[in-house]
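Progress note, sequence design subtask.
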């Protein structure tokens, strides 16, 4: 009788324990799935993106680097605009294209900082072997790569968008004091501003890709700088039509064409193309291809 009662109590305890474990909240505040349950790709990706966002804001160096990059954008442009207004006539801003170009002066430094941030987000996990914990939590490594890219894209798009709008609006107010009225409906202003936000996003994603490939902070930064700043000038030494085509296909050339304030057409491989549309399409394609390629690389090698 006692043995039967003991077995019944033990079975009840196991059922209660199993029920409690299945309904216990997960690390992201969502109910955990029962043992053996398969999580769909969209759900896994959504939860991993949320986890990456939480991870980002809990690391103070990331926040400082992000804040400095945003500060360069919304401070340097209006200051440069004020200098141009107060300077001699040879430095004066004469058109809306010049105005938006000057207003976004700070993005040159911000892109470098955001690219390095992308490298650190990956390399910073490989150095202390924390990436192994990430892969144990999310075994599908392609999900981790994609989630990091989406999380950083969201962060840069929101913060960079606010910084760009602040910089351009502040520059407009400065120009209004100098009797030059530029608005968001003026030629090139809205287009270049939106393209610049996408340009900032691209640098961050390229930084992530460099970090994934090298698994190193210094190596990733060196690879990023080489691809974005050194490769095009070196390949430009190739003589003839081949050199022109190769340079035009580089990520740096695509980004420069996308944010250009002077719309133009160019003859690439015998085809006349609109440089603005060409730059946007090629830049976006690079973001997708780099992210997909790094997902394949990471999935096929050890942490």
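Output:
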């Amino acid at each position: 009788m006692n043995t039967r009662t003991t077995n019944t109590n033990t079975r009840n305890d196991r059922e209660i324990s199993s029920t409690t474990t299945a309904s216990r909240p997960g690390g992201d505040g969502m109910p955990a799935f029962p043992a053996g349950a398969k999580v769909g790709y969209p759900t896994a990706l959504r939860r991993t993106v949320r986890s990456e966002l939480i991870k980002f804001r809990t690391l103070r160096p990331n926040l400082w680097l992000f804040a400095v990059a945003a500060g360069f954008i919304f401070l340097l442009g209006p200051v440069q605009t004020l200098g141009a207004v107060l300077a001699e006539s040879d430095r004066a801003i004469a058109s809306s294209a010049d105005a938006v170009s000057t207003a976004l002066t700070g993005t040159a430094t911000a892109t470098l900082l955001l690219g390095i941030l992308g490298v650190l987000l990956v390399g910073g996990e490989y150095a202390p072997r924390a990436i192994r914990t990430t892969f144990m939590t999310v075994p599908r490594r392609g999900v981790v790569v994609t989630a990091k890219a989406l999380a950083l894209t969201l962060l840069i798009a929101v913060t960079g968008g606010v910084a760009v709008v602040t910089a351009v609006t502040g520059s407009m107010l400065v120009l209004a004091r100098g009797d030059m009225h530029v608005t968001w409906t003026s030629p090139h202003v809205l287009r270049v501003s939106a393209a610049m936000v996408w340009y900032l996003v691209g640098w961050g994603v390229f930084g992530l890709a460099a970090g994934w490939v090298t698994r190193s902070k210094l190596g990733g930064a060196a690879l990023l700088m080489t691809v974005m700043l050194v490769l095009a000038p070196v390949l430009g030494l190739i003589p003839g039509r081949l050199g022109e085509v190769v340079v035009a296909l580089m990520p740096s050339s695509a980004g420069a064409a996308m944010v250009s304030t002077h719309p133009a057409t160019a003859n690439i491989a015998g085809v006349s193309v609109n440089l603005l549309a060409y730059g946007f399409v090629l830049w976006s394609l690079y973001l997708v291809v780099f992210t997909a390629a790094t997902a394949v690389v990471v999935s096929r090698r050890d942490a």
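The beta strands are 265-268, 271-274. Work on this subtask will continue into the next period as scheduled.
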